[in-house]
Design brief:
It contains 12 helices and 11 strands. It has 323 residues and is an alpha/beta fold. The strands form 3 sheets. It has a 7-stranded parallel sheet, sandwiched between helices. A two-stranded parallel ribbon has the order 7-9.
């Protein structure tokens, strides 16, 4: 089996390669699409690298040729413009699908989306972030190829990913907690859709190994035993810092968040403001367990508890001086 992976230099991608190497056979192979060949390559001879990106048809041809499975993790998730999101998350996904249909028509695509797609506001569309809109459009590309051209594809909607290799979510949240500037937003009292990274990797592996029917999609979130407020409170306790107590209505913050996002984009900033549409949405997020059950049924279930997962995540961050 030849497994192609895009986005291997991201948090999830790095962990995914490690996770798959522990599970595939000696004759199996992982082919990684990277913008630059890493100076310190993995010593395992089951891993190879193709230099290129999602905008280059010639490198995607090399990458796609002969694949049995393609795990598409590459995505622009950092603060960017709508055009930049469109280029990577939509046009890049479309070109990848096209190359798979040409050079590996029997390949199964496992496409990594986002729960932001499932939570898009259908009525007040101006409340949706450019990131969520781009991920939704990328999903539609995959679904169209699946329906109209017969691409074998499954979509996974991950939640808030934390654990080893997470250099963004927990480290950033931890730094804000240390500064005492974190507050709660109404709506995040229950059903936090965070997921420990190894649980999510296991879901991807199950889709690869069990090959569910094309069109069967999944939501990759944890046990949801706590809300976002309690998740943050647990992190604060483990860090021995002050636990936030202030709760602010979402409707009060969203206009400010929209304005701040626009100002930062106009100024050409490469990082998001502290109060952004995505941060406000994250701190008030609440995903229905019934929706998760409807998608996943008995196919996969997370194993990690929030307490143990946060302990492991903090240990990993502290060992690398990220907190």
């Amino acid at each position: 089996m030849i497994i192609g992976i895009t986005g291997v230099t991201g948090n999830l991608g790095r962990r995914m390669v490690q996770y798959l190497l522990a599970r595939i056979g000696a004759a199996d192979h992982i082919r990684c699409l990277v913008r630059a060949i890493p100076k310190q390559k993995l010593s395992d001879n089951r891993v190879s690298y193709i230099q290129g990106d999602l905008s280059q048809s010639h490198s995607l041809e090399q990458f796609a040729n002969g694949l049995d499975v393609c795990v598409h993790l590459a995505s622009l998730v950092s603060f960017a413009t709508a055009k930049e999101y469109q280029t990577v998350n939509v046009a890049g996904t479309a070109l990848l699908c096209e190359m798979l249909m040409r050079y590996a028509p029997q390949c199964r695509l496992v496409h990594c989306s986002s729960i932001a797609v499932l939570r898009r506001n259908q009525r007040f569309t101006w409340l949706n972030t450019d990131y969520a809109n781009s991920k939704y459009a990328g999903d539609q590309v995959v679904k169209n190829y699946r329906l109209q051209q017969g691409l074998q594809a499954n979509i996974i909607y991950p939640g808030l990913i934390y654990g080893p290799e997470d250099q963004n979510f927990i480290p950033t949240l931890g730094r804000y907690l240390k500064k005492g500037v974190v507050f709660f937003i109404r709506g995040g009292e229950q059903h936090c859709p965070a997921v420990f990274i190894d649980d999510l990797c296991e879901l991807f592996w199950q889709v690869i190994a069990k090959t569910p029917a094309s069109g069967r999609d999944f939501i990759g979130v944890g046990k949801q035993e706590v809300g976002v407020h309690e998740f943050i409170g647990e992190l604060a306790e483990l860090m021995h810092v002050h636990k936030p107590s202030t709760v602010v209505p979402k409707w009060l913050l969203m206009p400010l968040a929209i304005a701040m996002d626009k100002l930062y984009q106009l100024a050409g900033k490469k990082h998001a403001p502290m109060i952004s549409m995505r941060s406000v949405d994250l701190l008030s997020i609440n995903l229905s367990p019934q929706l998760v059950e409807e998608f996943n049924r008995d196919f996969w279930a997370p194993q990690m508890t929030v307490h143990t997962g946060l302990q492991q995540s903090l240990l990993w961050c502290k060992e690398r001086q990220l907190l």
